[in-house]
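Appendix B. Worked example

We walk through a single record from start to finish. Start with the input: the chain for RNA polymerase subunit sigma, Pseudomonas fragi, length 166.
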Amino acid sequence: MDPKSLLASLYHDNHAWLRGWLSRQVRCPQDAADLTQDTFLRAWDARQLERIQEPRAYLSTVARRLLCSLWRRRKLEQSYLDQLASLPLAFAPSAEDMALVREAIEAIDRALEGLPSRVKRAFLLNRLEGMPQQAIAGLLGVSLATVERDLRRAFVHCLSQTVECQ
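Next comes the structure step. The output line below is what the pipeline stores for this chain.
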């Protein structure tokens, strides 16, 4: 069977189930619909449709990863909004600036997707917070060499994602 037919079959057989499952997870029909579509796009992009033996297990795993990314991104956005709320009104950014920041946060999140949490955290502390490597090592309870290795890994990962993370 050709890939388009496989995707059509996977979509037809599992779309309603997946959307229902995601609706219970996020309690928002629009988010559930978006995540459902993103899940099928990821399945298509994986180019392994013919290898899927347990479609619901596969789709729920992909959807869970997308949910984690969504929640992580929302947590990051909320942290940013909390910081903005603490600024005097004269320093409040425009709606356009807010949109640009949101896009940048999403791009960084996508670029770091797939890295272990310690590597991501070290990278964000270094690049976004400006924290020196020695301070990161102390905060994370690891050696300086580990922090250097984690930062190098994050940079290489970002470069492989063709997204500039500097």
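Two observations about the output. Residues 55-85 form the longest helix (31 residues). The mean pLDDT is 87.
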